[in-house]
Amino acid sequence: MAKLSQDDLLAQFEEMTLIELSEFVKAFEEKFDVTAAAAVAVAAPGAPGAPVEAAEEKDEFDVILTGAGDKKIQVIKVVRELTSLGLKEAKDLVDGAPKPVLEKVAKDAAEKAAEALKGAGAAVEVK
User: Fold this and answer.
1) Is 0.70 surpassed by the pTM of this model?
2) Can you tell me the distance from the alpha carbon of 68 to that of 120, in angstroms, rounded to the nearest whole number?
3) Order of strands across the sheet with 123-126?
4) pLDDT tens-digit profile, the chain (127 residues)
5) Within the chain, what is the greatest distance between any pair of CA atoms?
């Protein structure tokens, strides 16, 4: 088996949808028994002169499909438009609700996606 370079791997990841990439990360974590959590710097509690930072406003949101409603076909069409998934993948996502449709998107994109899904008759949560 030929070894892939880092650039080749990145090119492959660029072609994946967010859902495919998320599934890959989960499979990778399970296979190698690791987690892909970001490292967090922790300040020593009670350190003199340590500034207290205000909580940052959340800038990444997930759009979660909680139910397809009565117009399942319309919801599948909207999911396909939002995610560029194929028909089978979009149907599986809708059938398997609650599932994330979009992950880590900007607030305005999350709101637009939620409105589109609600307009098609779906039940949606934005987290």
Assistant:
1) no
2) 9
3) 99-105, 61-67, 123-126
4) 578 888 888 888 888 888 888 888 888 888 888 776 554 455 555 545 545 444 456 778 888 888 888 888 898 888 888 888 888 888 888 888 788 888 888 888 888 888 888 888 888 888 8
5) 60
